[in-house]
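Z., the sequence and structure:
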Amino acid sequence: MTPPAVLVHRDQELLAKAVAARLVTRIVDAQAARGSASVVLTGGGVGTAVLAELAATGARDAIDWRRLDIWWGDERFLPTGDPERNETGARRALLDHVALDPARVHPMPASDGPDGDDPEAAAETYAAELRAAARPEDHGPVPSFDVLMLGVGPDAHVASLFPGLPALYDERPVVAVRGAPKPPPTRVSLTLPALRAAREVWLMAAGEAKATAVRLGLSEAGPVQVPAAGARGRRSTLFLLDRAAAAELPPGIERIASP
């Protein structure tokens, strides 16, 4: 894995616009190269803003939406349509406004789904769906996602992998998370091995409250205490930041400044 690259934008609005434009390019390139593309979405303020910017730009028409697989990195284990679910926010911001193939949209199970109120069963259901989508050339139980987007929490958590929780030791691709320090406490999440299957991992952060977490995520810290430090892509890793989130970058980290 190559060292992460750091791109800094002036503010959160420009960050969201730039990430949306970058995402269009990556999806179009992947579809041209392999016929289809796969993207893992994240929730949170920046993640949802990126999807809204993508919905608003005319460049979205360059994407063949019927040849795009949509996955999620984590989900709050709540009923279908709950406003706190990442799926709900993504549908409202983008997915309901483009011509996706419904069979290629892969939300994580909800607490009122076929698995009932059993997050462990829901995690296994999602793991099985990932296994079914993986091809021999992926060399593992999950597809080689083209782009996997992650928010970075103030505690340096990514997806629903919070510092010190058992999920960070788990080698399964998907796990239930109980006792999350951020509500709701019960979630379903990809694990670090699944995140690392992606060709590109994009870690996004905005605001001064994220600056310390970004600095730690770019350090040599262990992923059990700093999950963001363990989220790396097979081909590339990008930290996509606004200036406030980039305020504490470690010495020696090269930043690529944008207007």
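The helical segments are 12-34, 44-56, 86-93, 119-133, 192-195, 211-217. The radius of gyration is 17 Å.

Let me know what you think.
H.
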